[in-house]
Design a protein that fits this description.
Number of helices: 9
Largest sheet: 5 strands, parallel
CATH topology of the largest domain: Rossmann fold
Strand order of the largest sheet: 2-1-3-4-5
Order of helices and strands: EHEHHEHEHEHEEEEHEHHEE
Shape: elongated
Distance between the termini: 25 Å
Helix content: 40-55%
Radius of gyration: 20 Å
Number of strands: 12
Length: 225
Amino acid sequence: MAKICVVEDDPILLEFIVFNLKKEGFETVCYTHGGQVMDNIQQVISCDLVMLDNMLPGFSGIELCKEIRKHSGVGILFLSAKGNASDRIEGLKAGANDYLAKPFNLEELILRIQVLLPKQATTYALGLFELNFDSMEVIHTQTSEVQTLSKKEMALLRLFVDNENRVLSRDEILDKVWGEDVYPTTRTIDNFVLAFRRMFEGDQKHPKYFHSIRGVGYKFINQNK
């Protein structure tokens, strides 16, 4: 499930945008002040897409866009009342991928979001197994045995696959897979990883794929690619 960061200081418009994004199946992280974005830049860039208003308290959308671009290539969509040609050009030069003027058509907004979101493969080879993210199945390529995983298990596997060779902290994993409305313990993540090791690792004590990083979290490495 893609996570979209929405930066908008109009509470009524923010509520409207978030409501419709959730109807489309997206998760959202919201900020109403430019300073909040600066203070939480790592959470912002961990999202799959950032939607920026231009006129914000604290920092302008242009300033935020430039700061985000110092850290990440995440997709950025301006959604602003400043919609003349010079405003659009300024936003694109600052590093935005797209610029949509207010008032906007909701269907057009959703289509532009879908274009900007990173495209994800539906299958992934992991050792003797093939992961199918659409059907939530794990298929043994030699025996054709099929296991159906839960939505959370598949979401965690997708997170590991999308962040191969990168250390993921437990806090980041909790935020991206479980979201802000549910508060499992970090032990929940450990139990999921133990289950993955039983499923995919030939030697659970010396894992090839799911590596513990002491005091931080986990790192996924696919050595057989």
